[in-house]
């Protein structure tokens, strides 16, 4: 299994109250983004590591990688206006190797999730290699649907809150994103695009209870505490 790991770092620090892209804030002695990059770089199956950045952050990223990930080959790709655009840019960057059959699986991870473990990542990759696609998720309870009249209806069936990394067979993933680009379609996450434009089976594996996404100041405090305990 040859894996290209893509980490998305195109967000901002608006909701977290920062004056910069939140993934470059420091928690537990390292930038948020470097935690995910370090974990992915250490996975035996990962042969390519791609960081999708905002063009405005390029001058910041170089020195950060040299300091926090010395010797790690991280390929930088400029992202787009939306998540879908950034993922497409990464896939087009990898397209020659994907079409040549040199990349089997592409894993896409949100750089604002610094607590994703190697164990979780390997479980997602193994499921993607077996079924074609995999996402981590945690059971979500107490969900209701509301109509225009405001009436709430409990949802039936099993529901999960989906996390990242999400991993998929490389060839159908690239094809799905090119199809979405032709239709000017944008999904909320990678799995959404795959479910619309491919027949790949997407399996859900148990997510990490502490695989939180740093969005608010409280998330920063919690993430730093959890990472500090790990260290």
Overview of the molecule:
By secondary structure, the chain is an alpha/beta fold. It has 7 helices and 12 strands. It has helices at 32-41, 58-68, 83-99, 118-131, 170-183, 190-197, 217-230, and strands at 3-9, 26-27, 30-31, 46-53, 75-78, 105-110, 132-139, 144-146, 152-154, 160-162, 166-169, 201-206. Strands 1, 4, 5, 6, 7, 10, 11 and 12 form an 8-stranded mixed sheet that branches. Strands 2-3 form a two-stranded antiparallel ribbon. A hairpin with a 2-residue loop joins strand 2 and strand 3 (30-31). Helix 3 crosses helix 5 (170-183) and helix 5 packs across helix 6 (190-197). It is globular, with a radius of gyration of 18 Å. The protein starts with a strand and ends with a helix. The model has no long low-confidence stretch (mean pLDDT 92).
Which short descriptors sum up this protein?
single chain, 231 residues, alpha/beta, eight-stranded mixed beta sheet, two-stranded antiparallel ribbon, 7 helices, 38% helix, 24% strand, globular
Radius of gyration (Å): 18 Å
Instruction: Please give the share of residues in helix.
Output: 25-40%
N→C terminal distance: 29 Å
Shape: globular
What's the tally of helices? 7
Mean pLDDT: 92
Low-pLDDT windows of residues = none
Order of helices and strands: EEEHEHEHEHEEEEEHHEH
**Tell me about the biggest sheet?**
8 strands, mixed
Strand residue content: 15-25%
Structural class: alpha/beta
Give the tally of β-strands. 12
